[in-house]
Design a protein that fits this description.
Blueprint: E1 8-9, H1 10-16, H2 23-31, E2 36-37, E3 40-41, E4 48-49, E5 54-59, E6 62-68, H3 78-82, E7 85-87, H4 95-98, H5 113-124
Antiparallel strand pairs: 1-4, 2-3, 2-5, 5-6, 6-7
């Protein structure tokens, strides 16, 4: 790309960087006023963005803060898309880290087949 074309439409860049599956989804988000460019609300999907701009927008259940490193010429594979930005948001804790391990049969949860056999043996044992 030439130096004069160092800007790209906001919705197009979000789509190139693979934050959204379709460009129309990116357009809807920007039109709804949910994207900020350098701290200012983006007014329209055609707003020009370039390297060094910082974008803040919601994606799924998290708020993404990314710094644009490159424009990108096409919507390529994920590895190529990840080179277009630097993620500035702190990493979210994994959902699995917050979930306690599944309970074994101690009066909690459903017993395993092995636990049920042991219970059946205790019930049928006449010496108890």
């Amino acid at each position: 790309m030439s130096d004069g074309a160092s800007k790209i439409r906001l919705d197009k860049w979000l789509w190139h960087a693979r934050f959204f599956k379709t460009r129309s989804l990116a357009t809807k988000l920007v039109s709804g006023g949910h994207v900020r460019v350098n701290g200012n609300r983006a007014g329209k999907p055609a707003q020009a963005v370039g390297p060094e701009d910082v974008l803040t927008f919601p994606q799924a259940r998290q708020i993404r803060v990314v710094k644009i490193l490159a424009i990108g010429e096409r919507r390529g594979p994920a590895t190529e898309a990840q080179a277009l930005y630097e993620d500035l948001a702190p990493p979210e804790p994994s959902v699995r880290e917050n979930v306690p391990p599944s309970p074994r049969f101690e009066g909690k949860g459903r017993p395993t087949k092995r636990d049920r056999r042991k219970l059946d043996l205790k019930r049928s044992d006449p010496l108890d």
